[in-house]
């Protein structure tokens, strides 16, 4: 049973109630929200108030209105659409640097707040990481590696940090994929040493391990980018030389 809204700041109150429906999972991403008449009765508001609140949630990226089909939930937090839009124009290096900041703070907090159950989950995913990497199953490796990092972030006990990491999920996953595909070094697979540091509550060691593997992957990306530029330059030079040779042959033929 829902309480009727107070008469003060109806639109703002209604926005909060509608957003709570989304955050609680009552309205899941992809779901069409109830009809206007039902929502008006449920919250005790007018049609204009309801439509204004819905427009506000559409504006922040939580809802999307489809002409003739209704209004649908497209995100579970206003943070998601904003971050995804910004990240779409970010480089792999920039995303890796943001991941560095999040991972580093997460492991430091996890050292103080982790539970035994979370340590068990970390070990489980670490084992799967090693199995998939040994079998050269890159996509499966990236998926379980991401789950491992999510457990570590959850062990931080910081709800905002967890929320940020979840909404960066797709781009962070892509950064893991890109560094994994160009790296043949398996020393950083599974993060057993990181889990050990978290288990021992050694904050300095855990932070140093994050610095090490992020720095390792960052160097790989930089080296790979340098090689790409070098190969492109070499290819352009070869093409230019070929054109000069062709022009020289044509001139001699004309003479």
Unreliable parts: none
Radius of gyration: 26 Å
Summarize the biggest pleated sheet: 2 strands, antiparallel
Strand count:
2
Distance between the termini: 96 Å
Class from helix and strand fractions = mainly alpha
Annotation field: number of helices: 11
Percent helix range? over 70%
Order of helices and strands: HHHEEHHHHHHHH
Order of strands, main sheet, comes to 1-2
Walk me through this protein's architecture.
The chain has 255 residues and is mainly alpha-helical. 73% of the residues lie in helices and 3% in strands. The protein contains eleven helices and two strands; from the N terminus they run H-H-H-E-E-H-H-H-H-H-H-H-H. Strand 1 and strand 2 form a beta hairpin.
Fill in the keyword field for this structure.
about 260 residues; two-stranded antiparallel ribbon; about 75% helix
Write the layout of secondary structure elements.
Elements: H1 10-23, H2 36-43, H3 47-59, E1 63-66, E2 70-73, H4 79-87, H5 92-113, H6 116-134, H7 138-155, H8 159-167, H9 169-182, H10 192-199, H11 203-254
Antiparallel strand pairs: 1-2
């Amino acid at each position: 049973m829902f309480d009727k809204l107070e008469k003060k700041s109806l639109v703002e109150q209604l926005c909060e109630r509608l957003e709570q429906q989304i955050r609680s999972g009552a309205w899941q991403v992809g779901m069409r929200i109830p009809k206007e008449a039902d929502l008006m009765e449920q919250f005790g508001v007018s049609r204009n108030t309801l439509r204004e609140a819905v427009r506000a949630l559409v504006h922040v990226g939580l809802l999307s209105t489809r002409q003739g089909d209704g209004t649908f939930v497209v995100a579970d937090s206003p943070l998601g659409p904003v971050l995804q839009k910004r990240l779409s124009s970010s480089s792999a290096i920039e995303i890796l640097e943001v991941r560095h900041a999040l991972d580093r703070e997460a492991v430091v907090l996890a050292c103080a707040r982790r539970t035994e159950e979370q340590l068990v989950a970390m070990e489980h995913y670490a084992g799967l990481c090693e199995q998939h990497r040994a079998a050269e199953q890159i996509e499966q490796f990236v998926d379980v590696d991401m789950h491992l990092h999510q457990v570590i972030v959850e062990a931080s006990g910081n709800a905002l940090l967890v929320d940020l990491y979840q909404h960066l999920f797709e781009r962070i996953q892509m950064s893991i994929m890109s560094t994994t595909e160009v790296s043949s070094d398996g020393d950083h697979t599974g993060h057993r040493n990181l889990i050990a540091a978290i288990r021992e509550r050694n904050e300095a060691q855990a932070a140093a391990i994050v610095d090490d593997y992020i720095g390792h992957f960052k160097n790989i990306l930089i080296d790979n980018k340098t090689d790409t530029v070098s190969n492109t330059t070499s290819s352009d030079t070869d093409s230019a030389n070929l054109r000069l040779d062709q022009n020289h042959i044509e001139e001699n033929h004309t003479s």
